[in-house]
């Protein structure tokens, strides 16, 4: 649905304020890209947004993200109203965190990705699931799952500050603040720096 020039300017101004990591011309570019993706989608959302398939294809081609579990989790985080469609606001504000978020925003984002069932904890099973998908090659002489179980135990030893056998947001945040490399401990869910 074509938007009037004035309506578009109001949208861009509003998004420039809400997605505070982008300037006005960057927001305009992202809105234009959004329109292109919506046109390509030809979906039943009638110009309001695009679906999971278009979103996944876009993240794959733009950022090389390939892990199905991660892509589905990223979609869920972007799709804040949970209607199966990424709106222009969800698109721009989601990309603001994904591409330019503060450490605090990225900690919340990564934690939400890894908390597969949304219960506020990253359990052993969730760690196992994420690591199983993100590891490419297993040593031939070892049962593949054993190596992953060992990694889960190492992660818990390093990150489970309250020793309850699972990672709360507080555990995850403290671990990442101590060692920034742990931000993506359970699989790549942020684009490369480039």
Automatic annotation (TrEMBL):
Q: What InterPro entries does the record tag this protein with?
A: EF-hand-dom_pair, EF_Hand_1_Ca_BS, EF_hand_dom, Recoverin
Membrane-spanning segments: none
State the Gene Ontology terms under molecular function: calcium ion binding
Q: Where is the EF-hand domain?
A: 66-101, 102-137, 147-182
Q: Name one Pfam family in it.
A: EF-hand_7
Where is the secretion signal located? Answer: none
Q: Which domain of life is it from?
A: Eukaryota
Alphabetically list the UniProt keywords.
Answer: Calcium, Metal-binding, Repeat
CDD domains the record matches? EFh
**The keyword Calcium is assigned to this record:** yes
- Please indicate if the UniProt record lists Calcium as a keyword: yes
The identity of this protein, by name, is EFCB1 protein
Species of provenance:
Panurus biarmicus
């Amino acid at each position: 649905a074509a938007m009037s020039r004035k309506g578009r300017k109001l949208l861009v101004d509003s998004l420039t304020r809400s997605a505070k990591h982008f300037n006005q011309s960057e927001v305009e570019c992202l809105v234009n890209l959004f329109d292109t993706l919506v046109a390509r989608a030809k979906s039943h959302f009638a110009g309001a947004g695009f679906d999971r398939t278009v979103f996944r294809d876009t993240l794959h081609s733009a950022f090389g993200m390939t892990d199905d579990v991660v892509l589905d989790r990223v979609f869920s985080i972007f799709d804040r109203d949970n209607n199966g469609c990424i709106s222009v606001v969800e698109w721009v504000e989601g990309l603001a965190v994904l591409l330019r978020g503060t450490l605090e925003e990225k900690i919340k984002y990564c934690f939400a990705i890894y908390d597969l069932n949304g219960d506020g904890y990253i359990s052993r099973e969730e760690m196992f699931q994420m690591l199983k998908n993100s590891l490419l090659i297993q040593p031939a002489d070892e049962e593949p799952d054993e190596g992953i179980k060992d990694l889960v135990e190492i992660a818990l030893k390093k990150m489970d500050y309250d020793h309850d056998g699972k990672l709360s947001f507080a555990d995850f945040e403290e671990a990442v603040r101590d060692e920034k490399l742990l931000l993506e401990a359970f699989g790549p869910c942020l684009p490369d720096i480039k």
